[in-house]
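User: Fold this one for me? It's Glycoside hydrolase family 3 C-terminal domain-containing protein.
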Amino acid sequence: MSKTAKRVNLAKHIVISIACILLVVIMAAGDAVAGAFYLVISNNLGQITYKVEEAPGGEAVDAQYYKSEFDYDQRALRAAQREFALQVQGEGAVLLKQGGLPIASGGGVTLLGAGCADNNEMGFLYGGGGSGGISTVNALNLKEIFEQAGYAVNPAMWDYYNNGAGVGTRSLGNKRIGEQPLSSMPAGLRDVSGYGDIGIVVVSRPGAEGTDMPTTTEEDPDKSFLELSQNELDLIRFACEEAGFGQVVLLLNTMQAIELESVLGYENLGILWVGGAGEEGAQAIPALLNGAVNPSGRLVDTWVNDMLENDPAVKNQGDMRWSSGDATGTYVVYQEGIYVGYRYYETRYADVVTGAANAGNYDYQSVVTYPFGYGLSYTAFDYSDYRLTEAEDSVTVSVKVTNSGGAAGREAVQLYMQSPYTQYDRDNDIEKEAVQLAGFSKTGMLEPGASETVEMTVPKEYMRAYDANGAGTYVVDAGDYYFAVGKSAHDALNNILAAQGYTAADGMTAEGSAALAGSITQAALDTAAYAVGEDDFAIINELGDINIQNYDPAFVYMTRKDWAGTVPTGTYELTVTDQMLTDNAVPDPESDPDAVMPAMGAANGLALVDMRGLEYGHPLWETLLDQLTFQEMTGLLTANFSNAAVGSVMKPALTDSDGPAGITASLGVGAKGYGYGVEVLLASTWNKDLARRQGELVGEDSLFTMVSGWYAPACNIHRSAFSGRNFEYYSEDSLLSGVFAGTVVAGAGGKGVYCYLKHFALNDQETNRVKINTFSNEQAARQIYLRPFEIAVRDYGCNTMMLSMNCIGMTWVGHHRNLLDNIVRGEWGFEGMINTDTQGNFGADINDTAVWAGTDMFLSAQTLDETEVRGSPTMMNELREAAHHILYVTANSNGMNGISNSTRIVNITPPWVMWLVAANVAVIGGALAGLALNIRRTVRNMKKKEA
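Assistant: Here's what I get for Glycoside hydrolase family 3 C-terminal domain-containing protein.
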């Protein structure tokens, strides 16, 4: 054999050996992943991991604590879900401009715009991306939807957008909107004869986990992703001016607010926002356009002209970075304080009207396209008989709503409050918005001429403001508090201004109605009424460390005292200090000198089912917790879409699932239920009954799929329209967000689902979302960003949360003991469990501190320092308390269905585990045998070479 051949032969043997070793490594890694996702894999394959059987001598009882209202008839459930989806789309779609709407109930339709298509590269959006995504396998495309409704859809134009030159590619990452130039449309297609009754231009904008909206685009470098591209503007002009359509509609299939000022001049253009409808909701679109369904949605965000210039929050959003030596990081500063969305636009407007000092050059009408709460109808509603009644702890407002138009419809009645802005506020840097949402209600279906009196009650607690610099707690200022109903935040504010004596002569955009506003008077400053939370827990400053002024004392937040001097004009440049670097370290757990090592492994004979219905503080819990071993407690901490079994207390293993669109297996993990419309569409209904119903229907899917925990709903704030995840959050308003999130949680909880309310907290952009240092002040944090979570916990019984992946100040939220233990568990009385988001982004060194700080579970494998924890009575008690939180929630979940005092749980090895063992034996055994044989041959060949 030649030397070259020998070298080739040796190389071949080395490659084979490496391949055999890689096979073993891959199988071992696969085994580790399979072990981590044991429950999820079993659930996806429909294989059980345990069975419940009667204990010897036990007496059978009905242990179905949570039952299906459909008697487990999945066909009936799907019918109810479809009906629900159509109702949400009908009540959530927002009529922004009537133009020639409603359209005819039949005739020829030409669908225009790449957003109308039905393909993978571009097309109509049914939901968002990431954990909020859904399967669209069963969704009808727009052509099918309109044909099903009796319209003839232009087939040539449809082919152009699906198979021809009109096909585009849309990409957030590549900043590509995807609409092709009008010049690419063949001249023959521009003759829409036969299909020219109705032209519908579809504009789509996606939203996705992990990506924000670009501020420039490939097509138009001088425009943001939320502006209409020149190609879209040309198409709309073609539809309105050249094509000769009888009626023209702009259908906004967007996950967020976009800029529309450039097309509002077309008188014949009707505009309807439909959001993302989920699996079947889009089938309601023809009925919305032809008036069979009267749109009753209202905006949950302020729609603004030239967002990059006019939205103060945008100035400090995106990719901002800090560095000092080898230390690097990212940051965002919420310089606008409490003035998010309408709180800024309406407050500055009010200050211009009232002649406040330093209001600056501000023209409301050139800035705001559509105010928060805005929405039109195919009918008209009149308000009358306003009544305000004050009780000791609340204010009640009633108003009579009359349908004065010619079509049946529903009205979203909105109640707003104005707090006095006093010298005490100015002296202590307390900010006050000129108007804030205080309540809302949806009428029933009102026929023409019919009326309904709507009553809304506001707790006086809503009058409080957080005073970080004076009293160091919540205060209620002396002065007059106004309550007004209106058809938007701006309309209600004008009614308040009218009640205060202002008119259009003072610069108001319209005359208000003083008859729709009233006030109550607070006689004196009150610093005590709201200074304690649940169980008299003292409310004090807990978030001083997240204030950027700690590191830059000269920093000034945007303030009503000086709009002209404090509205951000650019990005705040962070200068790193030594204190920042010190604070960026993982905090050390503090030891409690009085802590006593807890008991473990006791044989007390209790089972988790014995704890169902018992209060969190019931003494029997201590007896049960004494039974846990160290390994069982640490095992509970790992939550890979699961909730671990605990043998000593007969706790079964439970399964969790993502995401905000329902139990949808959106990330390829878990069982699949129904895919609902995006959260922002649900909130746009302004209908709390629909929110509760969605929770109930998700609960039904939970019973069918055997998924007990739901990684949803999500209730972060739409700080700006550029956040890529706004579609899976409810609103720019904290009250609306909290009420919808809480109501969904309550509905699902009624079916035994524990809902991981997320992402806690101040996680309001996707850029750099992992470990980004988020700075705000305590008033803004409490009144804007924490408030939705507080409402869901205190008012609706939410008992589970998921943390965000950012830092507040320099501390990761999972390490922020003041936030988790003092605010959430102390002030709010939260008794449930707190899980991380993907904790693998942080590394294993964080786990001990996180448990000490109040984190209970980790969405990835946790790694505690066993020696440190076992040697610390403080840490052992924190570990025990984490187990208590988890067991308390799961004891009262539908995961306990079928388990009673007379049953026992018998673990079963699912078949796939045996398949995996067989595969391991075959693959690893074969690889090792092959490796051994290959080594033997290599050695033999080398010996021959030496000979």
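One thing worth pointing out: Residues 95-294 form a domain with the Rossmann fold fold (CATH 3.40.50.1700).
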